[in-house]
Every structure is written in C-alpha cells, then in structure tokens.
Input
Amino acid sequence: MAIFNESGLTLDLPDGLHFRFADLLAYKLHSGQNLKEMDFAWIDGGKLFLLEVRSYAQVSTTLTGADLIPLKGQAVPHRFEALIDKLTDSLLMLLAAWADTDCGKSIKAGLPAAAKSRMPLKLVIAIEMPSTLSAHLSGLRDSLNARMRGRIALADVRNVALIDYARLLANPTFSAFVKAQV
Output
C-alpha cells in the first residue's frame, strides 16, 4: 500500500492500482502549461476513482459562499474555476491516454495496467469547510455539475460527487482507503 497525506487526510492506496497525475513524467512535462490534475486516482471494484481533496479550514474566517459558487453577473470565483480546471484536465488526460494520442501514449505509460484501457470513472471532490459554510455545499455541487455536464458526458460520467470530509470518511467506498490524519 502507498500512503499519502494531504489536506488533513491520510490515503492508503493499493499498490499497482493507484496513480497520481502529478507523479507521471508526461504530466510533469506539461504542468507548466496550465494543465491541472486531480489529487489521487485508484481502481476499486472495476471503476477508476479520481479524487480531489480540498480543505478550507485555514481560511474559514474569511471564506463566504460567494468565494465558492458563481453568481450571475459576477466573476467566477477562483476556487470554483480551479475545480473545473482540475476535473476537465484530468478527464482530458485520461481520454488522451485511452485514445492513444501521442501525448496520451506517454500518460498511458505511467498508468497502472488496469487503467490503461477504458473503464468506468467516478469523479469525487471532498471538501473540508467550516460548518458556517456547509449550507453552500449543495449549491456548489449543483453549480459544478451544471458547468461540467457536457464535459463529463463525453467520458460517460453522469455527475461529479461533491461531499464533505465527514461523508467521505463514513462512506464504505472510501473508508477502506481514506482516514482522517491524527
């Protein structure tokens, strides 16, 4: 098992069945060109899970709903845009690998064997936020899915799961791999 600590979580991912885009040479060659990646990927139950973890605990006193959710007629919040970029670019990298484009072949070389061919995807974003902002979680999820709907449909993904840390840690799908840092 490979152990990673990030954003207040410890992930214990199965050897040979996980990867991080950030660790792939092909990603490193393009990361300076505005290419973003989701934090973790692993295979479980015949599905490839991509997980982005975000903790806003450190900025809880200054963060508002408007910092997370786009409002009509206003600039899109950078935190929201960052999530869109990470989701979109991660999907593009996987689709390029599965389509065997020149760059995709380089990405594919760094993937676990099971992820080198097309498989069902689950896109998950886990966010730690103060209880004062938890009411905005469903609005963020809905806005994110509305913005991503066409993009994720291209990869046969119905929606992006956006959950808080408590639900991530309690969900049996993730609890085998993800724990709170102590």
Notes: The first helix runs from residue 25 to 30. DSSP finds six helices and eight strands in the chain. Residues 50 and 175 are 15 Å apart (CA to CA).
